[in-house]
Amino acid sequence: MNTKLTLRMDENLIAEAKAYAAKEGRSLSDLVGGYFARLIQMQAEATVPRSRRPSPLTDAIVGALAGSKLDESDYKKYLEEKHK
């Protein structure tokens, strides 16, 4: 359920934020909500020991092949060709 929230900020900041949101094709509410969600996510991640967190590289490539038709057999074929 969405609920209205009133925020008070510098008018120049609001104008710049609205322009940014428009350029990104998003609403200002969506940007603010995303920011709050990210803050909460970061706080939750901070409670996980560093050794148990994925590396930034892992985060960057997760989902890179989503929707592709590649599978484990394709990888095996690649390795066989590579090591001929």
Query: Any low-confidence stretches, pLDDT <50, length ≥5?
Result: none
Number of domains: 1
Helical content band: 55-70%
Could you tell me the number of beta strands?
0
Q: How many helix segments?
A: 4
> What oligomeric arrangement do these chains adopt?
single chain
Strand fraction: under 5%
Structural summary, described in words:
The chain has helices at about 10-25, 30-45, 55-60, 70-80. It has one domain. It has 4 helices and no strands. The longest helix has 19 residues, at about 30-45. It has about 80 residues and is mainly alpha-helical.
Produce a short descriptive summary.
It is built from four helices and no strands. It is mainly α.
Supply database-style keywords.
84 residues; mainly alpha; 60% helix
Please outline the helices and strands.
Layout: H1 11-24, H2 28-46, H3 56-61, H4 72-82
